[in-house]
Amino acid sequence: MLLAGFVFGFALQIPAALAQDFPTLLNVTSPLTLAIQPACGPLNSGHAAEINTGINLSATRTIVAFGDSWTSNGANGTVPVPPVMWPPSPSAGSRVTSNRRASNGFVWVEDLANSLGAKLLNYAWGGAVIDNFAWNTTSPLNQTAVQRTDFVAETRLFLLQGKFLDPLVPSQTLYTVAFGINDEGQFEIAGGNWTLAYETYVTKLGELQANGAKNILIHGMYKSHPNTDVLQDKIFAYLRESHLVNGTAIAYVHLERLFSAIASNPGPFGYRGNATCLVSATTTAGGCSDADHSVFWIPGHPYILLRRRTD
Ligand SMILES: *[C@@H]1O[C@H](CO)[C@@H](O)[C@H](O)[C@H]1NC(C)=O
Ligand SMILES: *[C@@H]1O[C@H](CO)[C@@H](O)[C@H](O)[C@H]1NC(C)=O
Ligand SMILES: *[C@@H]1O[C@H](CO)[C@@H](O)[C@H](O)[C@H]1NC(C)=O
Ligand SMILES: *[C@@H]1O[C@H](CO)[C@@H](O)[C@H](O)[C@H]1NC(C)=O
Ligand SMILES: *[C@@H]1O[C@H](CO)[C@@H](O)[C@H](O)[C@H]1NC(C)=O
Ligand SMILES: *[C@@H]1O[C@H](CO)[C@@H](O)[C@H](O)[C@H]1NC(C)=O
Ligand SMILES: *[C@@H]1O[C@H](CO)[C@@H](O)[C@H](O)[C@H]1NC(C)=O
Ligand SMILES: *[C@@H]1O[C@H](CO)[C@@H](O)[C@H](O)[C@H]1NC(C)=O
């Protein structure tokens, strides 16, 4: 909820009285506070900057999400399993299938959809990269490869079935996209081609626009890497063109600034330190007993401000 506030706080508050199509499922209380506000950059910034050129949350009835485990609720374009916990699994969702979240509650885009009473079509999937062909470890051209889901496959699935799931009225539909950390991870293992990753990224954004996307939110990574910083700056430049050329309403969320602020001074946010709660991604055993006050839940999955109590 607070992340949703951070996402849009710079230009838009979550409207108090929305005609909710979909009810919020849980009564959640949180000990956390958003101790810094977003700092908007100009549209002509050379670096990816926090900005919202006019996405109207009051009008948003549908969210279409692409990304990796940061965003995935295990639905993969279908109906999600509610965020039920099955201890000692740390992942809210199904007990017996992979349809889980890397979180002990809703993930950020579900919180956003719940806040707005909007329908969510979520194509994000754990481990996803931008383009399997871009990395030596995942390229189908390289027979040593283990392919992952990518933005290409997620977009293909959405364009195939999304129109049957929702009217996708352009002025009422928000598209969210968040990739990068798995691309960096695969690149670090065996190299690859960032130019291709960038070109695929904007090609897919262009396809979404050609199919009616008029509101696009990009979620920047929570920490800096030289390669992904360059990628994000180039994506930001593309978004600027999208706004100027196509009239697309764009928003960019730069989480690095928020996470840097938390890491340097967690107290004002309500955190007691900024440690990871769990010791492993597969079990809650040995984890902290005070999840609501630590920044990370599953290692590498900083679901700050998004977590639910597990007791
Ligand atoms: C939500 O929980 C809080 C704290 O337990 C309680 O005070 C409040 O009445 C609850 N709200 C609803 C709508 O149930
Ligand atoms: C935002 O959407 C709401 C609901 O459709 C509408 O009443 C309002 O006029 C819109 N605001 C702007 C600035 O377009
Ligand atoms: C295939 O991938 C492996 C790493 O998984 C890498 O060592 C190798 O160089 C790659 N080969 C080609 C032709 O890209
Ligand atoms: C999830 O969707 C992707 C397309 O984005 C597809 O390649 C993959 O097989 C699906 N995975 C599961 C488990 O359904
Ligand atoms: C990655 O693959 C490219 C070909 O796509 C190859 O030129 C390069 O040597 C590979 N890098 C590594 C580290 O294997
Ligand atoms: C990287 O991808 C771009 C875009 O497809 C291509 O033009 C370029 O030749 C590729 N570079 C290498 C080293 O394969
Ligand atoms: C503008 O929209 C078209 C589809 O209508 C798309 O192909 C193109 O990539 C978009 N350009 C920018 C800069 O957003
Ligand atoms: C927060 O975590 C980071 C990364 O582990 C560490 O460098 C930093 O010192 C921590 N900050 C505080 C205030 O504990």
Describe the protein.
With 311 residues, the protein is of the alpha/beta class. The protein has helices at 2-8, 108-116, 151-165, 181-190, 194-210, 226-246, 255-264, and strands at residues 51-52, 62-67, 119-122, 173-178, 215-220, 249-254. It folds into 2 domains: 48-264, SGNH hydrolase (Rossmann fold), CATH 3.40.50; 268-311, no CATH class. It contains 7 helices and 6 strands, in the order αββαβαβααβαβα. Helix 3 runs parallel beside helix 5 (194-210) and helix 5 (194-210) packs parallel to helix 6. It starts with a helix and ends in a 47-residue tail after the last helix. It comes from Lyophyllum shimeji (Hon-shimeji). Residues 1-19 form the signal peptide. GO terms for molecular function: hydrolase activity, acting on ester bonds.
Which structural class should the secondary elements be placed in? alpha/beta
**Please, how many domains?**
2
Strand and helix order: HEEHEHEHHEHEH
- In the CATH hierarchy, the third-tier topology of the largest domain is known as Rossmann fold
E-strand count? 6
Strand content: 5-15%
GO molecular function: hydrolase activity, acting on ester bonds
Protein name: Carbohydrate esterase family 16 protein
InterPro entries: GDSL (IPR001087), SGNH_hydro_sf (IPR036514)
Keywords: Signal
List the helices and strands and how they pair.
Layout: H1 2-8, E1 51-52, E2 62-67, H2 108-116, E3 119-122, H3 151-165, E4 173-178, H4 181-190, H5 194-210, E5 215-220, H6 226-246, E6 249-254, H7 255-264
Parallel strand pairs: 2-3, 2-4, 4-5, 5-6
Antiparallel strand pairs: 1-6
